[in-house]
Every structure is written in structure tokens, then in C-alpha cells.
């Protein structure tokens, strides 16, 4: 369908040979976009992803208290490990 669209013809080999990466064609705009990328700020002490098998009752108990169950579970583990 794109090939048959008169408003959006395919680029020729000559046009592709002249193409530049966005950051080189529009450096100021590319830099502004990088600065405004947003996202979560980098944590000073990032978490470590692990795979852990737990009893279903344990997971259900933490989930039953609503959102934030993973944070509450982490806090309970910290207390059990004597880190608080």
C-alpha cells in the first residue's frame, strides 16, 4: 500500500545515499530531545532483579494489602535480615 501512495513515494537510491542520521541533520533538536527524555531519575542504590520462589500464601498475603506489595516485602526481608 505504501508503494502505491502518491503522497509518499519510495526513496530512490540517490536519495538514500544523501540521507543523514537525524542527529547530524538536526543536532540542536536531537540534543534537546535527549535532554527531555524524562524517565525515572537514576537511583543512588539501585535494586537488583532476582528470581525467587515463594510460597503462594506468602505472595497472596502481601498482594492482599494492595499496591506496593513488593516494597513491603522488601522491607520485611530487610527487617528479617537485621538491616533496619
Task: Give the SSE layout.
Layout: H1 13-18, H2 22-25, H3 27-35, H4 56-64, H5 69-80
InterPro entries: BrnA_antitoxin
Pfam family, one: BrnA_antitoxin
Protein name: BrnA antitoxin family protein
What does this structure look like?
The longest helix has 12 residues, at 69-80. The chain contains 5 helices and no strands. It has helices spanning 13-18, 22-25, 27-35, 56-64, 69-80. The mean pLDDT is 90. It has 84 residues and is mainly α.
Structural class: mainly alpha
Share in helix: 40-55%
How is the quaternary structure best described?
single chain
| Terminal residue distance | 62 Å
Please provide the ordered H/E string of secondary-structure elements.
Answer: HHHHH
Shape: elongated
Poorly predicted residue ranges: none
Q: Biggest sheet, in brief?
A: none
Count of distinct strands: 0
Structural Rg: 26 Å
In short:
With 84 residues, the protein is mainly α. It has helices at residues 13-18, 22-25, 27-35, 56-64, 69-80.
Notable characteristics:
single chain, 84 residues, mainly alpha, 48% helix, elongated
Amino acid at each position: 500500500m505504501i508503494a502505491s501512495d502518491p503522497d509518499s513515494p519510495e526513496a530512490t537510491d540517490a536519495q538514500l545515499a544523501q540521507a543523514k542520521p537525524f542527529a547530524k541533520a538536526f543536532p540542536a533538536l536531537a540534543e534537546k530531545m535527549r535532554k527531555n527524555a524524562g524517565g525515572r531519575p537514576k537511583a543512588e542504590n539501585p535494586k537488583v532483579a532476582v528470581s525467587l520462589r515463594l510460597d503462594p500464601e506468602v505472595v497472596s498475603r502481601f498482594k492482599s494489602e494492595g499496591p506496593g506489595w513488593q516494597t513491603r516485602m522488601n522491607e520485611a526481608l530487610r527487617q528479617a535480615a537485621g538491616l533496619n
